[in-house]
Amino acid sequence: MPEGPETRRMADKIAAALVGEKIISHRFFHDNLLQLNKMRAISVEKVYSISKAIVIRLSQGVSIISHNQLYGKWTFHRPKTRINSNRQLRIKFETKSKIIRLWSATDVRVLKSTDELKHPYISKLGPDVLDENTTELVILERLKGKNSFNRQLSSVLLDQAIVSGLGNYLRSEILYFCGLNYKNKPSELNQSKLFRLSKSIKDVSIRAYVQKGRTIDIGYFEHEFGNRSNFGKIRHMVFSRDKQPCFKCGARIIKMIVSKRRIFSCPVCQKLDK
Question: Which end of the chain, N or C, is more open, meaning fewer C-beta atoms within 10 Å of its C-beta?
Fold first, then answer.
C-alpha cells in the first residue's frame, strides 16, 4: 500500500495535470460518483493529500476523496495513447495534453468541500506526518499520549490515529535512524530518546517524499562512499535488506514478522533499550 510520501507525490502530479487546466471531458464510473456525471463542466481548484488519501477539490463546491489501498492506481497518458487494462476504471479526466485515470480503487467518495475532514477515513487520522504544522514537538506529544505511551513502537508507528502517513518501510527506517528497537515502548524512553524518535519520524518521512521513496541519507553515503554512482541503487538502510550487512556496523540485518508485517533492524545498532 502506498504510504504518505508516495500519496503526496501522486497528489502533486495530479495537481500539476489538472489545477488551472481546462478539463475537456470527464467521466465517473464508481457508484459513489455517478452524480457528478450530471455536471456539464468542471474545474479542479485544489489537489492535496492527507495521510494516504487524495482530495480533489472541484470549483463546483464538492470534493472527490480517494484512498487507493492496495489496488488503486492513477495513470497519466497522452490523449491518443491506446490503453489495454483489466482494471476497473473509476475516474477519467481529459485535458488538451493528458488523460488522467483512476483505476481499481474501492474507497472513492464525493463530499461537500466544506465536509472534507468529515470523511470516515480522514476524520479518524492523527496529524499528517508531512504537514508543515506537524512538527517534532507535535509528534513528541502524540508519542506520550495515552493511546501510545505503553505500546511497542512496532504498533505505535503504524497506528494512523497517532501520526498518519507512516507505513511498513518507513517504520523500519525510522527506528534504524534513531537507533531504537521495535519492542521498545515510549514509556521506556527518556525525553532525549523520545525527541530523537520524533525527529526521525519527521526527517525520514520528508526524505522519502523528496527522494521518491529512498530513505537513505545521501549526504552520509557521499561522505562514506564518494561518488553517488557507488550507491545509486541503494534505497534503504535496513528495509528489505535481510541478512545483508549494516552500512554502519557490518552486522547482518535481520527480518522479523510482527503482527503479520515485516520489520527489519540491525541487532547491534538497535539493541533493545531497557
Answer: C
